[in-house]
Amino acid sequence: MSIYKILVLVLIYFNVMGSLAPETPFRNLKVSEISSILKLLKLESLDTLLKKNGTFYKSLTVDYTNCGSEFPDLPGNFPCSFLSDDFSREERSEDISMGSTPGGKISIDQYRLKDQTYFFEISGGEDEEHRMRLFYRKDRFISHYIFSNQLILFHWEGNDEKSLTEVFRVTLGKKNQVLNIGRIDFAGGGKSK
User: Fold this and answer.
1) Taking Cα atoms as reference points, which of 166, 128, 169, 129 lies closest to residue 145?
2) Do 181 and 172 touch, CB atoms closer than 8 A?
């Protein structure tokens, strides 16, 4: 077989596989909407969110539970076991991980912030780009996480029984400027509008 035929077959293969790849579940929003999103979620400014640092508290080995098929893939292979901070407590409450599957164990560092809340960090080794920083609300549900050049924000509703209604993905440039915002709407059955 000639090199030309091999190249044509390779190009056809990648073209077919690319067209079969699942589409992102995020619906694009206007970049100018970042202020209203942060206000909706009762969060500080974007710069404050990205620069939060705390005092090291302890290292933990925790369960890493993959998300089921009903939950969309999020940047950094986000595990559904991290939707609440139950993974960090000895006595765990009922699993909220939406049809999750086993995933193994992972090492994670816990840091305390000045306002008595905390965040967790999963190291990417020497590669800072693959570090994941997870921030939790006072009610122990995830507020947001940072992975690579993306900020993922979670919108929860309800008092006694929490319900995840939206997830926002904010893609950032080298100087932390907003390049793109995407949204998944769970209120409409988990699909974006």
Assistant:
1) 169
2) no
Would you list the DSSP string of 148-162?
TTEEEEEEEE-SSS-
Cβ-contact 131, 124 below 8 angstroms:
yes
CA distance linking residue 83 with residue 109, whole number of Å: 17
Rounded to 5 degrees, φ, ψ at 38 are -65, -40
pTM: predicted TM-score of the whole model, two decimal places: 0.76
Per-residue model confidence as pLDDT tens for the chain (193 residues): 444 433 333 333 333 333 333 445 788 889 899 999 999 888 888 888 888 888 999 998 888 888 888 888 899 888 888 998 887 775 443 444 444 455 678 888 999 888 767 889 887 666 666 789 999 988 889 999 999 999 999 999 988 788 899 999 999 999 989 999 999 988 654 443 3
Enclosing H/E stretch for 57: strand 55-63
* C-alpha distance from residue 54 to each of 59, 108, 117, 124, 134 (Å): 14, 14, 10, 18, 12
